[in-house]
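Q: Focus on the shape:
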Amino acid sequence: MRGRSLILLAALALAACGAGGQSKQQQAPETPIVEIVEAAPLSAAGAVRASGLIGYRREPPLAFTSPGIVATINVDAGDVVHRGQRLATLRRTSVGASAGEAALARENAERELARTQTLFERGFVSQARLDEARLAVERTTDSAAITAPSDGVILRRVAEPAQMIAAGAPVLVLGETRSGLVVRAPVSGGDAARIRTGDTAAVRVSGEADARAGRVTRVGAKGDSGTGAFEVEVEIAATENLRSGMVAEVEIAAAPTAAASAPPIIVPTLSLLDARADQGIVYVVDAENIARRRAVRTAGVTQAGVLIVEGLSPGERVVAAGAAYIRDGETVRIAAAS
């Protein structure tokens, strides 16, 4: 009987210890771990944002000066060419109706050039007259060629061999590499009035994480007749892996106006809780690492995150991951930055 009593007392003691341990665990829950970000404005005050296309500053079309039939085209789109390189040839159709007539016209032009050259040497005719005589001889030749005016890359091939073309009709489009790459973006008239040549800019190319440095080199003097927008040209400093025709977004550090509103603040999408229309909740962590619930007003979502227009200030620490698992006034642990 006495042995049974001792066993019963030991069981009760163990049960009490287990209950006490469990009570201590419930009273001291583990502090939640969260990731935080610093609230930052989407752009600087007064900054102008616009989207446009990347292209070479100079992209001249190359053409023959006389009509004819394209004989050869030695390059294609994407080919790198050098100054003076022959790109295409033409068989002229305007020299004469027959081979004999063309030869006669050429002989007459050459005789006229020789006579003009003699008169020029004696001082009886001007340099302009001599140049006209040389041009007349050139026009009587039965072929013509297009040579590259500078180093560059062929952007488009417009014509094909055996094609009949008119004088001045584009055959190739050249991107002059020495002219540099720029972004041409349309902006409103109000924004164009605040932008100045030399303003710094950040260029974000579609698909790239980091922005490239840029500088405004031209602001359109006349708005588009259809849209009223003014074209702004931003020169890109680093052009590696860029191609003409790529889409880019520019953020120009233009002068702010007195009535300019504060730019929205950007936070990660996971920071926003209980989103309804333009309202939502975020958690802000104070200096003692206590998370406080904060009501905010939003203005949409972008690829970078949620735009906050009311309720947050730049520099405040916002919970970026783990907001769904904490309570208002709870102490949190900040995860180390990866």
Residues 85 and 147 are 5 Å apart (CA to CA).
